[in-house]
Amino acid sequence: MENQYNYYDSNEQQSNRSDYNYYEDSPKPKKQRKVPKILIVIGMAVVFGIVASFTFLLSNTLGSKVFGLNKSATLKTTDKGENASLSKSVKAVTSDVSGIVENVMPSVVSITNLSVQQVKDFFFGTYEQEAESAGTGIIVAQNDDELLIVTNNHVVSGSEKLTVTFADNKSVSANIKGTDVPHDIAVIAVPLNELEQDTKDAIAVAVLGDSSKLKIGEPAIAIGNAFGHGQSVTTGVISAKEREISTQDPATGQTVKSSVKLLQTSAAINHGNSGGPLVNAAGQVIGINSSKLEGSSVEGVGYAIPISDVSELIKDLMNQETKTKLSEEKRGYIGISGVNVTDEYAELFNMPYGVFIKEVQDKSGAKEAGMKEGEVIVKLNASTIDSMATLQEELKYHAAGETVKVTVKTPESAGKYKEKTYEVTLGKKPE
């Protein structure tokens, strides 16, 4: 082992000396410095990027000029000046609607309805109980003797006494001019001679807009006597148009399908807002707040009757004679017994909504006028009749001995009816 160690040791030393002498006696060659691999990779990436960019620009330029490609890359704007900018809306929408509300509020009134309702007791009997409800109205016109206010029919339905409170907090009694149940519209009147001059100076007639030109997303402002606490304001937008819904008449319990397609708005509409105005950014009335879809999972869904769809109806109701309720002893009776035409009967037999006449009583005004069993009463004078409750409510304004026009639908063949009008002299209540 020692010899082997010496062998390797001697050779290694000799080799080292030989190398040493070589470098000492000869000029030293220059060592070639190796380029790090990372620099090579970076350099190649740069070169590739330059070539790729040049190729892309060249092809893009040729494609645009020769083949007409990429012309849609430039966005068009409404600005025709030298400095292009994003297109801007002509009308600015702000969150401050105080100026609009200030102009509209004098035309808005609060309505209190004192009615008598049938209430079931613990033993399944019934008794009468006074009930008070709140709503809103819009001053729409004035004639020689009266101030005319439009509201919802369900706001005044079943009323024994109506009270209107104006912008100056003064209150007076009101009477009904006319009602229409399917459209949920009513017009009430306040005698001008019952208004003080201060009140006349504080109120105004509303400006009506054109609801047919509304656009979804347009600002909307709802004003009304929410929860009976006085006028309040909520804001939102027009969420949708031409909505079809059904509501329930609180006085009769009858389910009523709206005869018009409604506006849907995100402006909050609560109890008491019904009958109030939905206005646009110009302060014009574009709708009559009618109902609110309620539920724990539903928010921001309110409905309004488009003002343009009921403007002619409102005019007709305004031109009716003002009604005053009569005592039970003075009220007139037609002399029929009937039942309501329900949704089921209307769909099954293609019947019109109204009161189906089951029997015409002998020696009654209906019998003498020629009314027949099987006919369906749809109107009394100009007021729409859709149930026995509506007919009985309407008769409270007409005295025995008075002649009224009763419009019916007479069956001609299966599912086909012809309209006919009878002049009926009302009789006294049978003993």
Notes on the protein architecture:
- The protein is 24% helix and 33% strand.
- The protein has 9 helices and 20 strands.
- The strands form 4 sheets. The chain has a 6-stranded antiparallel beta barrel. The protein has a 6-stranded antiparallel beta barrel with strand order 7-8-11-14-13-12. Strands 15, 16, 17, 18, 19 and 20 form a 6-stranded antiparallel β-sheet that branches.
- A hairpin with a 6-residue loop joins strand 9 and strand 10 (255-257).
Based on secondary structure, the structural category is: alpha+beta
What is the H/E string? Answer: HHHEEEHEEEHEEEEEEEEHEHEHEEHEE
Approximately how much helix is present in the residues?
A: 10-25%
Give the termini distance in whole angstroms. Answer: 149 Å
**From the alpha-carbon coordinates, what is the Rg to the nearest angstrom?**
42 Å
Low-confidence stretches: 1-31, 62-93
State the gist of this model.
With 431 residues, the chain is α+β, with helices and mostly antiparallel strands. 24% of the residues lie in helices and 33% in strands.
List descriptors:
431 residues, alpha+beta, six-stranded antiparallel barrel, 9 helices, 24% helix, globular, disordered N terminus
Per-chain topology:
Layout: H1 2-25, H2 37-67, H3 98-104, E1 108-120, E2 126-142, E3 146-151, H4 153-156, E4 159-165, E5 171-180, E6 185-191, H5 197-202, E7 219-224, E8 232-243, E9 246-248, E10 255-257, E11 262-265, E12 277-279, E13 285-292, E14 302-306, H6 307-318, E15 336-340, H7 343-349, E16 355-360, H8 365-369, E17 376-380, E18 383-384, H9 388-395, E19 403-413, E20 416-425
Antiparallel strand pairs: 1-2, 1-4, 2-3, 3-6, 4-5, 5-6, 7-8, 7-12, 8-11, 9-10, 11-14, 12-13, 13-14, 15-16, 16-17, 17-18, 17-19, 19-20
